[in-house]
């Protein structure tokens, strides 16, 4: 259990643990198709964050990583296939963070928000461009800043 989550309800903890999965699907599917490189990148980034995340987030990403791939695959099959409908559904889920992040340690919340944005950027860059680098589609660029989540630093 992540110590910053001790005072949260079980459903709130689940929202926090599923947020990186939703971010991955949101960005990977922004152009309508979740291709193999985006799927692979999402899973690799989630696993790499277990060891390379900001120190305060290591336990969090270990908890996320334990079920990331299975949640990722389950949610892809459960969410709408249409990119716009899927994006709306994910945005609704990610907005729940606006009620949960203020309940946890501000420093942790700020780092988590930055980490989710970093995850979005890495997945967006996973496909396209020269050798797959530094190319973010128009659809991805509209979502990459995760504007549906209030920046905890500005509260």
Quickly count the domains.
1
Number of helices: 8
Mean pLDDT: 85
Strand content: under 5%
Please give the alpha-carbon distance between the first and last residues: 26 Å
Question: Roughly what percent helix?
Answer: 55-70%
- Helix and strand composition category: mainly alpha
Largest sheet at a glance? none
Q: Which of globular, elongated, flat, extended, rod-shaped describes the shape?
A: globular
Integer-rounded radius of gyration: 15 Å
Number of strands: 0
User: What's the order of the H and E elements?
Assistant: HHHHHHHH
Unreliable spans: 129-133
Can you give a write-up of this model?
- This protein has one domain.
- It is 63% helix and 0% strand.
- It contains eight helices and no strands.
- Helix 1 packs across helix 4 and helix 2 packs across helix 3.
- The longest helix is centred in the first third of the chain and has 19 residues.
Keywords:
single chain; 155 residues; mainly alpha; 8 helices; 63% helix; 0% strand
Précis, in short:
The chain contains eight helices and no strands. With 155 residues, the protein is mostly helical.
List the SSEs and their pairings.
Blueprint: H1 10-28, H2 36-52, H3 58-65, H4 68-78, H5 83-95, H6 97-100, H7 106-124, H8 138-143
Helix pairs in contact: 1-2, 1-4, 1-5, 1-7, 2-3, 2-7
